[in-house]
Amino acid sequence: MNCNKPVILQKDIEVPRYVQAAAEMLMHSGYEAYIIGGAVRDSLIGKTPSDWDIASSATPEDVKKVFEEDCIPTGKRFGTSTVLIKGEKVEVTTFRMESAYSDGRRPDSVTFSKTLRDDVARRDFTINALAYDIRQNGVIDYFGGLQDLEDGIIRTVGDPEDRFSEDSLRMLRAIRFAVELGFEISPDTLRGIEKLHASIQRISHERIQEELSRMLLSAMPGKAFRYVYETGLMDYILPELSDCAGVPAYDGSPDDVLEHSIKACENIEARLDLRLAALLHDIGKPVTMSQDGTGRIRYFNHENVGSELAKAALERLRYPKATVDKVTTLIKWHMFSYEPSTKDKGIRRLVNSLGLETIYDLAKVKQADRAALGLDPGPGEKMEAFLKRVEEVLSRGPAFTETDLAVDGRDVMRILGIPEGPEVGRALAELLDMVLEEPDLNSREKLLAILKTMSGQKKP
Ligand code: ATP
Ligand code: MG
Questions:
Q1: Measuring from atom 26 of ligand 1, which residue has the nearest CA?
Q2: What is the 383 CA–ligand 1 centroid distance (Å)?
Q3: Mean pLDDT per 10-residue run, the chain (460 residues)?
Q4: Is 254 domain-assigned?
Q5: Cα of 1 to ligand 1 centre, how many Å?
Q6: Ligand 2: distance of its center to the CA of 369 in Å?
Q7: Do 160 and 285 belong to one domain?
Q8: Least buried of 53, 130, 186, 254, by fewest C-beta within 10 Å?
Q9: Residue 26 shares a structural domain with residue 147
């Protein structure tokens, strides 16, 4: 293909008014301006673009002159300005050329260019290298992006190894775009990732996390993690999950723990904490695997070991504390088994310590685990019975905590005649215990009466 002569496809793309206005203003001042990247790609496949970017021959100084106070130089070093049109933001980026990347993360310097051709040549994938000319209603394609978009192919612009050596994050972006769009990665591009996978270590954990999260939230998280494993990237991103390959999911299982985990992740709703919990729920199995006296394979305590391993992995990937806490709790409890003989008090305590929301999420994780094992849909009989019991117990009175008690520490000190200290806490815990058993007791009058009898018992 002669890449100096682009293919031009006549096409009406619906460009928002404010984006058109920004491009028109640049062109009116004598500069070239095109809609570029994701917005063109998404418009052509009928997806609503998340943001609109303009590539222009105007330098950041030129852009400033055109838009005056409506121009904020957001990434001046990289040639990016944010332009405000009637309160809406458009990013205008000066045509750039690819320059040397000595660290595999970011270019050593940025060189502006005069031509659109140079600018699209430095973009990552052919489908992201399409430009739209709003005056001609034409999609400009230098690198076969239109064909790849039609065929559903992720392919680097130029030689995959060169492009992945420049910027290692592109390897994860290739997989992420493939699963977000439901595309395949071209064999050459895939080989490039296989060859250079170890260089992903140069990328910061934060940026890896961002790509991983988008893969997890895509329609095809399973496909994403199969790509991540097969290319070797997983050894550097989630080695804990790589270790699950070849370890049977249970004694006699046709799936290994890795495949089982991926299937679980495919069988849970698209919420980040739930998908992470499903993906990591069994990562404690490889280290805890043992054989019992009869030769059966067991994974004693794998939920607790797995929860610890997940904590380390998620913290390493810089997930926020709330996500880490939620995911590790779900993993820790994923083997929970309801005992119908549990007293109401025990049920209320459990609701107190886990929270109702986490209990329902736990049912979702169990359901995903079961679906991955090929069992019938639903969270399982025991979990269903547990959820029913929780509802029933809570319908008779809420799950109190100490702060919900109708009396407080001051009442305890006054009536028992004791100073501040651990004994106050013990008395409150005793009262809570009674209230959990019998919610009706939680009135000020009744609890004060109980405290008085306690005080009577204490005094000889
Ligand atoms: P989305 O916003 O849905 O992730 P996008 O294509 O808009 O998709 P961005 O990350 O917003 O992706 O980047 C905008 C454009 O910038 C891309 O379409 C691509 O042309 C270019 N680009 C972004 N990151 C890179 C990179 N690491 N290497 C080369 N080009 C890139
Ligand atoms: Mg974008």
A1: 124
A2: 44
A3: 78 96 97 97 96 96 94 86 94 88 76 94 97 97 98 98 97 98 98 98 97 98 98 98 96 95 97 98 97 93 98 98 98 94 90 92 96 88 94 82 89 94 93 88 94 78
A4: no
A5: 24
A6: 34
A7: no
A8: 254
A9: yes
> Looking at ligand 1, which atom is closest to the CA of residue 169?
27
Q: Indicate the residue among 396, 431, 448 that finishes a domain.
A: 396
Q: Are residues 118 and 130 in the same domain?
A: yes
In a domain, 261, yes or no: no
Residue range(s) defining the domain that contains residue 453? 402-458
Q: Which of 41, 50, 124, 202 to mutate to test the pocket of ligand 1 (most atoms within 8 A of CB)?
A: 124
Which pLDDT tens digit goes with each residue over 371-408?
Answer: 999 888 788 999 999 999 999 988 887 767 888 899 99
Q: Do 75 and 165 have their domain in common?
A: no
pTM: 0.90
Q: How many domains does the chain have?
A: 4
CATH number of the domain to which 26 belongs: 3.30.460.10
- According to the model, what pLDDT value does residue 1 have? 47
127 plus 14 within the same structural domain? yes
Q: Ligand 1 centroid to 173 CA: how many Å?
A: 9
Which of ligand 1's atoms lies nearest the C-alpha of 37? 18
Residue 65 located in a structural domain:
yes
- Distance from the alpha carbon of residue 330 to the mean position of ligand 2, in angstroms: 33
Domain containing residue 209: CATH number: 1.10.110.30
Same domain? For 138 and 23 the reply is: yes
Pocket test for ligand 1, best of 123, 127, 139, 207 (most atoms within 8 A of CB): 123
What per-residue confidence (pLDDT) applies to 75? 82
3-state secondary structure the chain: CCCCCCEEEECCCCCCHHHHHHHHHHHHCCCCEEEECHHHHHHHCCCCCCCCEEEECCCHHHHHHHHHHHEEEEEHHHCEEEEEECCEEEEEEECEECCCCCCCCCCCCCEECCCHHHHHHCCCEHHHCEEEECCCCEEEECCCHHHHHHHCEECECCCHHHHHHHCCHHHHHHHHHHHHHCCEECHHHHHHHHHHHHHHHHCCHHHHHHHHHHHHHCCCHHHHHHHHHHCCCHHHHCHHHHCCCCCECCCCCCCEHHHHHHHHHHCCCCCHHHHHHHHHCCCCHHHHEEECCCCCEEECCHHHHHHHHHHHHHHHCCCCHHHHHHHHHHHHCCCCCCCCCCCHHHHHHHHHHHCHHHHHHHHHHHHHHHHHCCCCCCCCHHHHHHHHHHHHHHHCCCCCCHHHCCCCHHHHHHHHCCCCCHHHHHHHHHHHHHHHHCHHHCCHHHHHHHHHHHHHHHCC
Atom 4 (ligand 1) nearest CA: 38
Ligand 1 atom, smallest distance to 173 CA: 27
Which amino acid residue places its CA nearest to atom 17 of ligand 1?
37
Indicate whether 247 belongs to any domain: no
Q: Of 99, 116, 151, which one is at a domain's C-terminal end?
A: 151
Looking at the fold, whether 23 and 106 belong to one and the same domain comes out as yes
> Are 174 and 185 in the same domain?
yes
